[in-house]
Design brief:
198 residues, mainly beta, six-stranded mixed β-sheet, four-stranded antiparallel β-sheet, 2 helices, 10% helix, 31% strand
Length: 198
């Protein structure tokens, strides 16, 4: 490791296992992009926090903070998402159940005091899929983002950490996931997101 390693994130990751959170992905082999956005995958990643899905699973989000989209009659809908780690009231995550064992998760991210001290670490909307057929040691969460994004985000002074792309959607960005298109309409204190069924 480089000169500075923040051991608190290692202990937070291990404590996550103690309270029942699965390991996201393998600790051996190649990493997927979502690893940089969830403490239960890479505790040395740039954002160093639990994803909204992990917070939901462990019961750290109230029902009032989780928006569940009925997809049966969905044509288009707009929702406001409060940044995941903000203390403000509002929806922290939106969940679109796509089958009995899969979903699309949408959350608003901002760098926090726990993030790596990287100039201009991006803010935006994280979109990822959940596959309930996969478990601990698998990538049951997968980031959905424009794949042409360069891998250029890395914590300073950590030689072993890999480079991650900016997997967040910004104002005007859209991503199609299966039959759904998620678009960031505006971004500020909250992120306004449009969900459309194709």
């Amino acid at each position: 490791y480089g000169q500075i390693r923040q051991y608190w994130s290692y202990w937070a990751h291990e404590f996550g296992h103690v309270i029942g959170l699965a390991h996201l992905g393998s600790s051996r082999g190649s990493s997927q992009t979502i690893a940089g956005y969830d403490l239960m995958a890479n505790q040395d990643g740039p954002y160093k926090e639990l994803s909204g899905w992990m917070r939901f699973i462990i019961g750290w989000l109230d029902d009032s903070q989780v928006y569940c989209q009925d997809v049966q009659n969905l044509i288009t809908n707009e929702i406001s998402l409060v940044p995941l780690s903000d203390s403000k009231p509002g929806f922290k995550i939106a969940v679109l159940p796509t089958s009995v064992d899969s979903a699309i998760i949408i959350e608003s991210r901002r760098p926090t005091k726990f993030s790596c001290d990287i100039p201009n670490l991006p803010s935006g909307v994280l979109v990822y899929t959940y596959d309930a057929k996969l478990g601990s040691g698998d990538y049951f969460l997968t980031a959905q983002y424009p794949l042409e994004r360069p891998k250029n985000i890395k914590c300073l002074n950590n030689d072993r950490m890999e480079l991650y792309p900016d997997a967040l959607l910004h104002k005007g960005d859209s991503i199609q996931v299966g039959n759904y298109v998620i678009t960031v309409i505006s971004s500020g204190n909250v992120d306004q997101v449009r969900i459309e069924k194709k």
